[in-house]
Amino acid sequence: MTREVHHYINGAIVQGTSGRFGDVYNPALGAVQAKVALATREEVTTAIDAAQAAQPAWAALNPQRRARILGKFVDLIRANMDELASLLSSEHGKVLADARGDIERGLDVLEFSMGAPHLLKGENSDSVGSGIDTYSMRQPLGVVAGITPFNFPAMIPLWKLGPAVASGNAFILKPSERCPSVPFRLAELATEAGFPAGIVQVVNGDRTAVDALLEDPRVRAYGFVGSTPIAQSIYARAAELGKRAQCFGGAKNHCVIMPDADLDQVADALVGAAYGSAGERCMALSVALPVGKETADRLVEKLTERIAPLKVGAWDNPDADYGPLVGRDAYERVRSYIDQGVEAGADLLVDGRDLVVEGYESGFFIGPSLFDNVTKDMSIYTDEIFGPVLCIVRCADYEEALALVNDHEYGNGVAIMTNNGGAARDFAHRVQVGMVGINVPIPVPIGYYTFGGWKASSFGDLNQHGPDAFRFYTKTKTVTERWPSEPSTGAKFIMPLGDQS
Ligand code: NAD
Fold first, then answer.
1. Which residues does the UniProt record annotate as the domain Aldehyde dehydrogenase (predicted)?
2. Domain containing 207 — which CATH number?
């Protein structure tokens, strides 16, 4: 019988009643391995009821006690790493070592969130007026929701969960219906770690579940990660309803290669960052911008040498560099982009379209693909392909490369490869992108900094994790107090002034 994944509501497994299920694939086999229940509005409402009931006592708990429970959760995730990584890989397709990295990067933010007792401290100013003091406090929002994508089934849910619950909120996760098993297991482990029922819940589902979360006035904030059109629409809807949202969208990350860069280092970095996880990373490098013809010619030679021996295989093949795409639709979309690139006149130097992996003939595999002489009007340049496709756009000089990055619709990550400190500094200051790597191909900031793109890669003014996440999941209250010891001198009709000297 096919395995089924249901919901985790109020500290227990709740069987879905909609009769609607999504297919969960093993993308290496191209076959359905499980079914995920798609929630009804009523099931989402039950989760919100439980969250609303549990949150006040959770918020009243000493933040250090909350942090200790988070610490136990971290330990339990580490203790179950093998099981979680296998589950994650088998549904997503990324290779096991990469799945462990996905989980570890989530733990990074849980560990940061254990610093909540410090991060939630307010400010205090004595004597802002005569006998008057002012202090501020950070209070949780109440019930908050995370809506997350398929490509990091552990990391992104944990990026939302950690700061949300450490701040005293109750958190409801609506994970991607493509890879639901790890988020579900995380909710079970959260209960085992000691989170009270209703504080960490998972409702599986599709748009119906998201709409129910959006429209219930008790849910006060949304942490969304996914494609740009959905990010933008959820941000707009939340704003219309007077709620808080931070919505992170798609990407097209460029890498500028200066003539002085060490091209062996660059080619190794590019191959890993373009093809790792089959290119299904929002920080994948998908455009290389070599500066000058000689740089471009040498880069092409070094890239093609390195692409030839790459191994594409199933998630549990320890020799595989990367695995299949997540689903048939993703596979067809990536193939169609490669077709479009060829039709538009780009030079397809390495064609991954017809790759067949022995023993996995129905798997959603695409080999590493490399285009040269791509121009900025081509769809393979303008659109996020989200597959193992690297495009080279040749640039005459640094200014042309910088202008391409800055004119692109997306602004998530970017890298510059150079030995010239002046060029690197100029780039870091002038580039219109949220996360910049200097000789670092995938500049994902560590958990105590913040993560977020610019332009169409992000909607909202606060980033994920780091101190921004604590600002997002709390509201500030400022108290001004006075304890009069003298008799009243009568009513005053002017605006109170701080400095009355
Ligand atoms: P997606 O937009 O299809 O789905 C994301 C979430 O939204 C899922 O939970 C999904 O169920 C839900 N959803 C889908 N359609 C919806 C609708 N019409 N209404 C309401 N909810 C809906 O994204 P995906 O394919 O799962 O993920 C890949 C995308 O995520 C890529 O564009 C990638 O760049 C982006 N991403 C961005 C970041 C970032 O931090 N900027 C990180 C990871 C992934």
1. 16-479
2. 3.40.605.10
